[in-house]
């Protein structure tokens, strides 16, 4: 049995950040992970280039039952603090759209920075060990039992992530430990995830795979995102769809404005008076992907006519179709392809300063296992850094 002060379960973004911080405070820290490598989700993130933070991150970019919790956490270790850290390590990175920061070379650079920090802070890393159980002892210390050893420690930090990408080692251990100690776990669901379509819609959009359209997507509750939607062979994806999936509930429609920068009604009237002999097919194909226009003509959403044959009613109806195109997803692709897990350990159970469980001294929860979910765009890693940093000052 190894005696140690702190065991961090999970060598992901939150766990590594926390471990380094605790190590710098002079704590003896062991990080345990079942994977062969640390930071496996970091490595696959952002198409291998890791969108490691967002310059504009603010509490408004997160879903959480208690928004004050997120505010407190983000204000203590901000995106600017993380940017300062990567600058100190000489990371080469670039700005993409909407404040997103990506590595120039590879996500491995972010993992290397975290491992260097852990190394400097004297943290020991124990890979290929699945944590099976955490037990609280009469003397107030904990036993962390893995497939190969047992740690006896003062503090346990649960940084075991959510349920997404089971093939990358996602397990429900974090939620189970929370429940074991009587903490509320809010229902979980896959978020930032592509939609699947009902068979009739799949048939309608067969052949559109790979087409993307810059759109304004609106949820049933009125949340909006302006980015691309992408047709796939399974359904709908693309950044705007991933974003709206976090707000979508089964059975709801999403509404898609396919031409958000255009006064569509005025354009249709102009075409009718100025280019009346041209077909709608050809006119609309100048502003939308041709194959998509064909699909909407085939299913009757767009009349197969010349512009001067459109009645006022048809112009109104077509405007509605193009600016408020309604899709009712069949479901989502689920945890297999989702980027994050919505829900998790209720933040009301945790100190917003230290992430310690209010009713269980020495037990901490950070990162995705908690009920904090960011939008797409580097916000989830920022929460992992912020929560890991805060916990590292206390555990
Ligand atoms: C494909 C993809 C792309 C993404 N891209 C981005 C992006 O570009 N920007 C962004 O901000 N976010 C992105 N995310 C989300 C981001 O990866 C997560 O929010 C973040 O990794 C959460 O960090 P974490 O430390 O809480 O959990 P994780 O990174 O999931 O780490 C948890 C660790 O715990 C370990 N573990 C679990 N159970 C056990 C157990 N029983 N015993 C031992 N170890 C265990 C796992 O092996 C894992 O290493 C992406 C996610 C995916 C899936």
Report on this model:
- With 395 residues, this protein is α+β, with helices and mostly antiparallel strands.
- Helices cover 31% and strands 25% of the residues.
- The protein contains 13 helices and 22 strands.
- The chain has helices at 13-24, 40-44, 67-76, 79-88, 108-120, 173-180, 199-204, 239-245, 264-274, 280-284, 290-298, 312-323, 379-392; strands at residues 2-9, 29-32, 51-54, 62-63, 93-95, 100-103, 124-126, 131-136, 142-146, 150-158, 185-191, 195-196, 212-218, 224-231, 235-237, 254-257, 325-327, 331-332, 340-345, 356-357, 360-365, 373-374.
- Strands 1, 2, 7, 8, 9, 10, 20 and 21 form an 8-stranded mixed beta sheet that branches. A 7-stranded antiparallel beta sheet has the order 17-16-13-14-15-12-18.
- A hairpin with a 3-residue loop joins β9 (142-146) and β10 (150-158).
- The longest helix is centred in the last third of the chain and has 14 residues, at 379-392.
- It binds flavin-adenine dinucleotide.
- Residues 9-15, 32-35, 40-41, 44-46, 50-51, 130-131, 159-161, 164-165, 169, 171, 173, 339-340, 367-368, 378-381, 384 line the site of flavin-adenine dinucleotide.
- Flavin-adenine dinucleotide binds next to α1, α2 and α13.
Bound molecules: flavin-adenine dinucleotide
β content, as a range?
Answer: 25-35%
How many strands appear in the DSSP assignment? 22
Q: Which of globular, elongated, flat, extended, rod-shaped describes the shape?
A: elongated
Give the mean pLDDT.
97
* Helix residue percentage: 25-40%
* Discrete helix count: 13
Task: Tell me the distance between the termini.
Answer: 21 Å
Structural class: alpha+beta
Low-confidence stretches: none
CA-atom Rg in angstroms: 24 Å
Please summarize the sheet with the most strands.
Answer: 8 strands, mixed
Domain RsdA/BaiN/AoA(So)-like Rossmann fold-like: 5-393
Organism: Pseudoalteromonas piscicida
Protein name: NAD(P)/FAD-dependent oxidoreductase
Keywords: FAD, Flavoprotein
């Amino acid at each position: 049995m190894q005696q140690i002060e702190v065991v961090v379960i999970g060598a992901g973004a939150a766990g590594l950040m926390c471990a380094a911080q605790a190590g710098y405070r002079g704590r003896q820290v062991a990080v345990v992970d079942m994977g062969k490598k640390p930071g496996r989700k970091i490595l696959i993130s952002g198409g291998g280039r890791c969108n490691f933070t967002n310059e504009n991150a603010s509490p408004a970019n997160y879903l959480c039952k208690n928004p004050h919790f997120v505010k407190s956490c983000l204000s203590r270790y901000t995106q600017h603090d993380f940017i300062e850290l990567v600058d100190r390590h000489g990371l080469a990175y670039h700005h993409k759209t909407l404040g997103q920061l990506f590595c120039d070379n590879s996500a491995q650079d972010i993992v290397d920075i975290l491992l260097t920090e852990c190394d400097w802070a004297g943290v020991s890393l124990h890979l290929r060990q699945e944590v099976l159980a955490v037990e609280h002892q009469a003397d107030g210390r904990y036993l962390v039992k893995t497939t190969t050893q047992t740690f006896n420690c003062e503090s346990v930090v649960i940084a075991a992530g959510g349920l997404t990408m089971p093939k990358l080692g996602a397990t429900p251990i974090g939620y189970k430990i929370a429940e074991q100690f009587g903490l509320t776990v809010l229902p979980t669901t896959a978020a930032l995830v592509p939609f699947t379509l009902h068979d009739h819609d799949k048939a309608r959009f067969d052949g559109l795979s790979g087409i993307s359209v810059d759109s304004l997507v609106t949820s049933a509750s009125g949340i909006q995102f302006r980015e691309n939607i992408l047709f796939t062979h399974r359904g709908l994806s693309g950044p705007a769809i991933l974003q709206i999936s976090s707000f979508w509930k089964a059975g709801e429609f999403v509404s898609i404005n396919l031409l958000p920068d255009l006064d569509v009604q005025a354009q249709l009237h102009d075409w009718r008076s100025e280019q009346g002999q041209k077909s709608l097919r050809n006119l609309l194909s100048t502003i939308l992907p041709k194959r998509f226009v064909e699909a909407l003509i085939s299913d009757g959403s767009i009349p197969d006519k010349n512009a001067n044959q459109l009645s006022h009613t048809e112009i109104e109806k077509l405007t509605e179709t193009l600016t408020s195109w309604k899709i009712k997803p069949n479901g989502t692709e689920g945890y297999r392809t989702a980027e994050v897990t919505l829900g998790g350990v209720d933040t009301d159970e945790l100190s917003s300063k230290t992430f310690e469980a209010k009713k269980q001294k020495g037990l901490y929860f950070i990162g995705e296992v908690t009920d904090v979910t960011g939008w797409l765009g580097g916000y989830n890693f920022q929460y992992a850094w912020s929560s890991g940093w805060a916990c590292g000052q206390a555990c």
